Hints:
It is a single chain. This protein is α/β, with parallel strands linked by helices. It contains 12 helices and 18 strands. The protein has helices at about 75-85, 100-115, 140, 160-170, 195-200, 210-225, 235-245, 260, 285-295, 315-320, 330-340, 345-360; strands spanning about 5-10, 15-25, 25-30, 40-45, 50-55, 55-60, 85-90, 120-125, 150, 175-180, 190, 205, 230, 250-255, 300, 375-385, 405-415, 420. Strand 2 and strand 3 form a beta hairpin. The mean pLDDT is about 100.
Amino acid sequence: xxxxxxxxxxxxxxxxxxxxxxxxxxxxxxxxxxxxxxxxxxxxxxxxxxxxxxxxxxxxxxxxxxxxxxxxxxxxxxxxxxxxxxxxxxxxxxxxxxxxxxxxxxxxxxxxxxxxxxxxxxxxxxxxxxxxxxxxxxxxxxxxxxxxxxxxxxxxxxxxxxxxxxxxxxxxxxxxxxxxxxxxxxxxxxxxxxxxxxxxxxxxxxxxxxxxxxxxxxxxxxxxxxxxxxxxxxxxxxxxxxxxxxxxxxxxxxxxxxxxxxxxxxxxxxxxxxxxxxxxxxxxxxxxxxxxxxxxxxxxxxxxxxxxxxxxxxxxxxxxxxxxxxxxxxxxxxxxxxxxxxxxxxxxxxxxxxxxxxxxxxxxxxxxxxxxxxxxxxxxxxxxxxxxxxxxxxxxxxxxxxxxxxxxxxxxxxxxxxxxxxxx
Length: 424
């Protein structure tokens, strides 16, 4: 299909400028003012007010197949991503079987090839069976088939194991994306060990369970030269450790999630839709994360989209499964709470959701220029709507943003030159 986007505010060279964009054969053919529509199959008018950006990339999603298709499928998860303006999702290895060898990985990639409507890029595990203990996997056997390696949901528990993993991944030029959690410090906790937990007699998860492993891993990354990415940071100490490691030249990057930047533990309610891991921390932690976004310590905003069944999320804070959905609210939440309030610019948000993820994880795209792959999203930054989980495409409905009034909506998603979602 030949597609012409007219009168768009196009993201190029880290800023927006008005342009038309002509798409042919899956790539951007040309940009310019007043491109003629002769011979074009479809014309979309952006009305001088919609923003054309490189498609978002989420480097931390859970699509649940194989093994847990009652929670989500690759088809429903990728469709939810497409609806939200994502053209690539990096999917975590919390699966059955876990992708710790070629055979198990193929069980996942076969479904991806059949059902995904956008790019779905799998992570392999770091340890066998994703246990965080025992043995590391044969990284080389699947290195060319995965976007990186992660034991997400489980921290690698010993220094020896992580040192070996980093050494081998450094030799292969592959990234380690680490969920940092010291099991010995958890003590049965399930929300942040702070004021809300004390007021309501809940068992808390201390901040040190996160930052102590980040501290260890930054040292190991410095020793091994491994490219090291930290998943979903939530504490002020984590920000400080990563900031200092970057200043020393350690090859470390990190992400946080929309909920950590917009909520704290005192926003909790006695409802499973507020339960995730790591948990919502303090107001002070939230502010430190925002400062980390502003000074570049935090590179990427990822959703940690983690769907569960209604039953699994209906058991309150103490007994519900960990994890909330996030794909279909991420842009609007951040646009409303960070961009519209003047904390960051829309350009900065696009950089963190679309450009930096591609740079760090070596994913094609990220620029709107002649010859580039046409993976794009068209955003209305002013559209107002109210979050109703029953309208989500994802099978998961548990979100802490339920009933929030938000601004910002994706209108059109283009994947390899083809429209995979539209409301225009």
